[in-house]
Amino acid sequence: MIELLNPVISGWSNYYSTVVSQEAFSHQDYLIFQKLFAWAKHRHANKSWEWISRKYWQTIGGERWVFATRPEDKDPQTLRKHNATPIVRHIKVKGDASPFNGDFIYWSTRMGKHPEAPHRVSKLLKWQKGKCALCKLFFRDGDVMEIEHKIPRSQGGKDEYRNLQLLHRHCHDVKTALDVAAGGMHDKHQVTEEPSTLKGCAVVRTD
Questions:
Q1: Are 88 and 17 in contact (CB under 8 A)?
Q2: Which has the closest alpha carbon to 171: 194, 154, 140?
Q3: Alpha helices in 57-148 (DSSP H)
Q4: Could you tell me if 77 and 9 are in contact, meaning their C-beta atoms sit under 8 angstroms apart?
Q5: What is the distance between the alpha carbons of residues 174 and 206, in angstroms, rounded to a whole number?
Q6: What's the pLDDT at 125?
Q7: What is the pLDDT of residue 115?
Q8: Where would a tag sit more exposed on the chain, N or C end, judged by fewer CB atoms within 10 A?
Q9: Rg for the chain, CA atoms, rounded
Q10: Which CATH entry fits the domain spanning 125-198: 1.10.30, 3.30.1240, 3.30.70, 1.10.3470?
């Protein structure tokens, strides 16, 4: 039952996640609870509601009344809740922006993909909301960007998105120079804490 319900709940919640839906999500969770409890009561007509609640509902991570299989099961599963879906407001397309005007930075930041941009760059632009991970300034058309491993591969870092960040090339160079000045090894993928002096640095336009 959980395998059948979860895709439906996820799809419905994601569809309405861009509007004011939190109250509706909570109401849907309440209705599902009522229907599930009626189903369980019908299935175990001779059992008390305490027995039924212990069999089908659990407390997981401090959250009570979670419809789930037992933790000792081979493949434990939990029923997804509507209100677990974050509300993300739809942002209108700015001005006369078009996917065909060549502004891959804007569309990658908005959609996480663009036919003229490398896939990893587009994903990182969306996750970083269009900003350099070091200086926190927005990338602009013409800026040269570089992908850096937060934990260098030489130190066991993996080539996966959660270990990657997108930087301006000059921010990457400045960070590397600071690493060397601090006595670190010259490693293009080495990562350090963000220097406070760079938070207001200007973006260099590169052809």
A1: yes
A2: 194
A3: 104-111, 119-127
A4: no
A5: 16
A6: 86
A7: 65
A8: C
A9: 24
A10: 1.10.30
Query: What's the chain's length in residues?
Result: 207
* Residue 148 DSSP class: E
pLDDT the model gives residue 179: 67
- Residue showing tokens 């090339």: 169
Please report which helix (H) or strand (E) contains residue 31, including its range: helix 22-43
Q: What is the 8-class DSSP label of residue 160?
A: S
> In which residue are the tokens 């990562």 written?
191
What's the pLDDT score for residue 194? 31
DSSP three-state, residue 55: helix
- Which pLDDT score is estimated for 204? 34
Instruction: Pick out the chain residues at pLDDT < 50.
Output: 186-207
Q: What residue ranges of the chain are covered by domains with CATH 1.10.30?
A: 125-198
* Spatial CA neighbour of 187 closest among 158, 140, 151: 151
Predicted local confidence at residue 186, as pLDDT: 46
Please enumerate in sequence order all residues whose Cβ is within 8 A of that of 129, keeping only pairs 6 or more positions apart, or say none. 109
Measured between alpha carbons, how far is 8 from 23 in angstroms, rounded to an integer?
18
DSSP 138: B
Model pLDDT for residues 6-58, shown as the tens digit of each residue: 999 999 999 998 888 899 999 999 999 999 999 999 999 999 999 999 999 99
Give the residue ranges of DSSP H helices in 71-200: 104-111, 119-127, 169-181
